[in-house]
C-alpha cells in the first residue's frame, strides 16, 4: 500500500510539472503577443483623374519564326550566314551541290539557329536554319475572366519593357483567346498585344502591359479604404467638431484600386476618416487599412454600438445626400 501511494505521488508531481511547463509557455506566448489598437487618420475628398485599367506581365515575342527544312536528300555546298546575323527577304542562305534549290530568307529578320555546315549530307525534312522577324513583336498577358468584357480587339495599351524603364512603348490588342485556363476557381484568358514600334527591343525581354478600360477626369474621390460596405450600402466616416463621428452614405463610381470616385454624398475638401490598425510591438508603428466597421463598433472607440446601428439604418446618417 505504501509503495502504491509513493507511485501515485510521483505521477501527480510529474503531471503537475508538465502542466506547469504548459502554463508557463502559454503565459510567455501571451506576453509576446503583439497588441493592436484602433487608430484613425483623416483625409480630404479631392478632385482626381481616375483611370480603371487591366494589366499583366509577359515577355517580348516575335510575330513570326520559321524553321526551314530541306526538301530533298543532298549535300550542303555552302552556308552563307551565321547565327544572329541580320538577313533580308530573298537573301541566299544555303546552297547545295546536287541541284537542290538554294535556301532563301522568307522575310526580313535574324538568323537564330544554324543546324548544318558545309559538306554535311542532309535528308528530306531535316532542320537546316531558323529565322525570326525582328521588327514585329508582341507580348501576351493573362487576364482574369471578370476583366474580359472590358477588352476588345483594337484597344490601345501601354507597354513597359523592363530593360528600358525610362522609355514608353505602346501597343494594340490583336487577339483575345476564346479558351481560358481554369485554376483555383478562376479562369484566365490570354490577350495578345502587338507593339506599335519596338526600337532596340529584343525577343525574350520582360514586359508589363496596361490597358485603360475607363477613365474620368475632375471627379471627387477618396482613398478606397475610406469607403465601407454596410448592409449593401456604401458609407464613409465623417469626423465632427466635438470629436465624435457619424456615418455618411455615399454613391461611388469607378476605381483604380487606390482611389474611388464619389458621385454623391461628399463635397470637395470634406474630411473623412480611414480606420487603421497600429502595431505596437516596437518603438515604430506600422499602419494598415482595415475592412468594415466592426472594430469601430465593437470597441466603442468612437461611437457606441447602438449609435452606429441607428446611423446605418438611416436614423442618424448625418450629411446624407
From TrEMBL:
An example Gene Ontology CC term for this record: membrane
Span of the signal peptide: none
Region annotation (Disordered) ranges: 274-321
Compositional bias (Polar residues): 276-286, 301-321
Keyword terms: Coiled coil
Recorded family membership: Belongs to the membrane fusion protein (MFP) (TC 8.A.1) family.
Name of the protein described by the UniProt record: Efflux transporter periplasmic adaptor subunit
Amino acid at each position: 500500500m505504501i509503495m502504491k501511494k509513493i507511485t501515485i505521488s510521483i505521477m501527480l508531481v510529474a503531471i503537475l510539472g508538465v502542466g506547469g511547463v504548459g502554463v508557463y509557455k502559454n503565459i510567455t506566448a501571451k506576453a509576446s503577443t503583439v497588441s493592436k489598437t484602433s487608430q484613425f487618420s483623416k483625409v480630404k475628398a479631392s478632385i482626381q483623374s481616375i483611370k480603371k485599367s487591366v494589366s499583366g506581365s509577359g515577355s517580348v515575342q516575335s510575330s513570326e519564326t520559321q524553321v526551314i527544312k530541306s526538301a530533298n536528300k543532298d549535300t550542303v555546298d555552302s552556308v552563307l550566314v551565321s547565327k544572329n546575323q541580320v538577313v533580308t527577304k530573298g537573301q541566299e542562305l544555303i546552297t547545295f551541290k546536287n541541284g537542290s534549290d538554294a535556301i532563301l530568307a522568307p522575310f526580313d529578320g535574324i538568323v537564330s539557329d544554324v543546324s548544318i555546315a558545309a559538306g554535311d549530307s542532309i535528308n528530306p525534312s531535316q532542320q537546316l536554319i531558323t529565322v525570326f522577324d525582328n521588327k514585329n513583336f508582341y507580348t501576351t498577358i493573362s487576364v482574369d475572366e471578370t476583366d474580359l468584357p472590358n477588352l476588345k480587339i483594337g484597344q490601345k495599351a501601354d507597354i513597359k519593357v523592363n530593360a528600358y524603364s525610362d522609355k514608353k512603348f505602346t501597343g494594340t490588342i490583336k487577339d483575345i483567346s476564346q479558351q481560358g485556363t481554369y485554376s483555383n476557381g478562376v479562369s484566365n484568358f490570354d490577350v495578345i498585344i502587338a507593339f506599335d514600334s519596338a526600337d532596340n527591343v529584343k525577343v525574350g525581354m520582360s514586359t508589363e502591359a496596361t490597358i485603360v478600360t475607363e477613365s474620368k477626369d475632375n471627379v471627387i474621390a477618396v482613398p478606397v479604404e475610406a469607403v465601407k460596405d454596410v448592409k449593401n450600402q456604401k458609407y464613409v466616416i465623417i469626423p465632427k467638431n466635438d470629436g465624435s463621428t457619424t456615418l455618411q452614405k455615399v454613391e461611388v463610381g469607378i476605381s483604380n484600386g487606390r482611389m474611388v470616385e464619389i458621385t454623391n454624398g461628399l463635397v470637395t475638401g470634406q474630411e473623412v476618416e480611414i480606420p487603421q490598425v497600429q502595431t505596437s510591438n516596437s518603438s515604430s508603428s506600422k499602419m494598415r487599412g482595415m475592412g468594415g466597421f466592426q472594430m469601430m463598433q465593437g470597441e466603442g472607440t468612437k461611437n457606441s454600438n447602438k449609435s452606429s446601428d441607428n446611423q446605418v439604418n438611416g436614423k442618424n446618417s448625418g450629411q446624407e445626400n
